[in-house]
Design brief:
The protein has about 375 residues and is an alpha/beta fold. The protein folds into two domains: about 5-110 and about 205-225, Thiolase/Chalcone synthase (Peroxisomal Thiolase, Chain A, domain 1), CATH 3.40.47; about 120-200 and about 230-380, Thiolase/Chalcone synthase (Peroxisomal Thiolase, Chain A, domain 1, 3-Layer(aba) Sandwich). It is about 35% helix and about 20% strand. A hairpin with a 2-residue loop joins β5 and β6. α3 packs across α13 and α7 (about 155-170) packs across α10 (about 285-295). It holds the Pfam family Thiolase_C_1. Its EC number is 2.3.1.-.
């Protein structure tokens, strides 16, 4: 099977952009990715574009050029971007196309996500008990996890502080003001134990990737191509309404789409957690990053307390996590968020991440998405 590689990345800044549509942000991101790859829009043979707010994101061709190529809309909650890159890579691997794009864009109103049951497929009782709001859902989830595995509120604050500090070195991030762990802990409680500065916020932005056949990468760019080693998407097996997350090593009876997707991706890539040099994990809140470290096999349950205190997940640590600030620093425009993760990993593997470049020569990067009501996507990249 033909191997797919990433040859171009583009990222529109994340934040608030009054008067600018999601489509226009998406078009800007595509143009940046095309320029990075050294290709033009008419050369693209197909692609996948995702958005929550835009009903027909494939209409972005009106901004880019009416070439007639298939551009398919995709949506999978917060895992949308993982779906877009998986399908763009698969089209190359199967020989359908030689040059594809993955695009994500969104423009969300202010405030926490409150899912419409007719859209999210969640029964009415779920919202009536307050669980539609991300503050409630993730508060309950990390509260149980902290009780079971000895995680402190200080650890959550350290995670948030790290991500804001990383975002300060990212000129395309939304929240670029560093906050100490003490300042995070002093912010108002939204849903115990999570505080104001432990949550991400819905916002606006766009990102895009250009992929091609590995044996043709030299035709387009002098940049080092980044290999797509694995893409995996898994949904829940027992239901959508969990309030705790088990860790990676548990048996097959455990229902965690992240564990399932992670295992599948490692197997597909022929790699293990010990091979990962830099990771981007879904941090809808600080607790999610803690839980997802274990679910993705990067540590055992409860080890996060020590690892984070030791600085293991810092840019200069043993396993840097969310080097661009993650969702906490960048916010979450759903369709674009996961492609932002890929953008950062590509920069890290190229060695072009600037002030936030991790030391040494990273070879393997890992990205993870978790989307309601229970789908996870994992992508593993390497040089």
């Amino acid at each position: 099977m033909t191997e797919a590689v990433i040859i171009g990345v583009g990222l529109h800044p994340f934040g608030r952009f009054p008067g600018k549509s999601a489509m226009d942000m998406g078009a800007d991101a595509v143009r940046l990715a095309l320029a990075d790859a050294g290709v033009t829009w008419p050369q693209i043979q197909g692609g996948y574009v995702g958005s929550y707010e835009v009903a027909n994101p494939d209409a972005i061709v009106g901004r880019l050029g009416l070439t007639g190529v298939p551009l398919r809309g995709v949506f999978n909650g917060c895992a949308t971007a993982g779906t877009a890159i998986a399908l763009a890579a698969r089209a190359i691997e199967t020989g359908e196309h030689d040059l594809t794009v993955a695009i994500g864009m969104d423009k969300h109103p202010r405030g926490a996500f409150a899912a419409d049951p007719s859209v999210a497929g969640i029964p009415a009782w779920y919202g009536q008990t307050g669980l539609f709001l991300t503050t409630h859902f993730f508060g309950m989830k990390i509260n149980r996890y902290m009780h079971d595995h000895g995680i402190s509120e200080e650890t959550l604050a350290r995670v948030a502080s790290k991500n804001f500090r990383n975002a300060a070195g990212n000129d395309k991030a939304w929240r670029r003001t560093p906050l100490s762990a003490e300042e995070v802990l002093a912010s108002p409680v939204l849903n115990h134990p999570l505080r104001q500065f432990m949550y991400c916020g819905p916002n606006e932005g766009a990102a895009a990737l250009v992929l091609c056949r590995a044996d043709q990468a030299h035709k387009y760019t002098s940049q080092r191509p980044v290999r797509v080693r694995a893409t995996a998407l898994r949904s829940r097996r027992l239901g959508a309404f969990e309030v705790q997350s088990p860790s990676f090593p548990v048996g097959d009876t455990v229902d965690s789409p992240t564990v399932d997707a992670s295992r599948a991706a490692y197997e597909q890539a022929g790699l293990g957690p010990e091979d990962v040099d830099v990771a981007q994990l879904q941090d809808t809140d600080a607790g999610s990053e803690v839980i997802h470290m274990a679910e993705n096999g990067l540590c055992k349950d409860g080890e996060q307390e020590r690892l984070i205190a030791e600085g293991a997940t810092e840019i200069g640590g043993r396993l840097p996590v969310n080097t661009d600030g993650g969702l906490l620093g960048n916010g979450e425009p759903i369709g674009a968020s996961g492609l932002r993760q890929i953008h950062e990993i590509v920069l890290q593997l190229r060695g072009t991440a600037g002030d936030r470049q991790i030391p040494g020569t990273p070879r393997v990067g890992y990205t993870h998405l978790y989307g309601a009501p229970g789908a996870s996507a994992v992508t593993i990249l390497s040089t």
